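Archive transcription. Copying these from loose printouts into the bound notebook so they stop getting lost. Printout 1 of 2:
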Amino acid sequence: MTPLRLLFAALAIWGAIHPMYYFITWFQANGWDLMAMVDAWHVNAASSGLVWDLTIAAVALTVWIVAEVVQRRMWLGLIAIPATFCIGVSCGLPLYLFLRSKPGT
């Protein structure tokens, strides 16, 4: 495995674990109510801006993944889409780059 693929794998793992730590901590303190978390994301203009920034990035990443999967027939790349929307762009993007950089694809 190349150093770049290892870096993408490490970033995908970090992008899964680090945000989830904060999400789980919040849920434990405030209850397991997803809509309450969404409300907390929009507590002020700065956090709303960040939410929209990440949402637009997630949609752009999804369009890119789908377009490349159709072209390259690398179906495994589709797992980056639920990773993006269930965990975050910090996991989905490096995961897709890791999968995309596999030799022979």
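Printout 2 of 2:
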Amino acid sequence: MRPLALSLLVASLIVAVPPATAHAQKEKVPKRPDLGVGADTNYAHAYYAYGVSILDRDPEKAAAAFYWAARLDPAWAQPLYARRIALFMAAPRLLVGYMTGVRRHVESKEARSIDSLELHALTLNPFLPRELDKQLIVAYLRALFEEELEKSGDRMDAATSVRFDYFMERFLRNDSRERVRAMVAISEGRVPEALELYRKALSQERDDQAGIHVERARAFHLLGNDDSTRAELVQALDQLRKKDEKALVYVYQSKALLEHCIGLTHETKAEFEAAREAYGRALQEDLSYFPAHIRLGSVALAVGDTTGALNEMDLAAQIKGDDPWVRAIYGTTLAQTGRAADAAVQLRKAVDLEPFYPGPYYVLGRVAEVLGKPAEAAEDYRGYLAHASSRDVRVPDVKQRLMALGALAGERP
């Protein structure tokens, strides 16, 4: 058995990839994993937790669990991020080719489809926690090690696997490059340590300082330090603008996305003018970047500009009309601003796009009540109860509303 070439592992661990395609390829719907007796099968977090628990030993089944978590809650970024990791872990040869920058793997339909999950996740939450990155790194190193074993006629057995795990843990904590150690630290919640490691990595990673500044921004965000978060994002933007536009960049390094991040740090502090400016710059970078329209709509609503809010939401729906979350948030905004009939149109589209998403059913029920359509309201509320988790705080309200509607219609409650 030949020893693992650590220099090769370290050198090839972090590579640039081209931007993901806007949409994932149509895929076969995976079977819902069995969560066990008594499990709440409408609870997205239950599927996510189950997927995390089996990710190392059965990444394919974990990917299925993350798929269903994402369908139950299309507004939640984490299952999309996790599914990307699980799908790569389930395809070791693709993972090795992708991570080592082999063009036929990096630019393959499969890799681009998997990468689109990350892009989608980041449009939902540009600061999503990267709690599973370590597992992807370890899976890559394991797959690379197994390839080396195969070349020498050996195979991974139980004893070799135990030694590998011990060696990899020490390697990732002590001997790998600072940037790799920082990624592991972030995954394990050691944020201050990660920041220091990223700082040291800046002098080593001359070709991708923008990426490190982005990662430092995410780390500062986890600590609640908005000023430092913005400072790192500005440095990342400066670095990206110096690059050749044709150069390969990380999927999460779009300048529009980074401006989105800056806008969020302002919006959460009610600094609405600064947030609006950042979202405007995001659209200057990429006119098709629909999350900027969503955020601009949110800012407009916060300052009482309902016309502006609806215009922005409408633009987002024109760009990304196949996204149930976009339709749902547009429909909800219409409902909030007194446009009940128009809200119903958007919310019906959200339900058509994702029938497992409970939120639109609830708003549809409220809208139907406003429009004086008790039978439709009752049907929508029943749809909500059929798809909502028992933990949803709106369940008691919906049950009360159904009882009242039943009484109005002369039904037995």
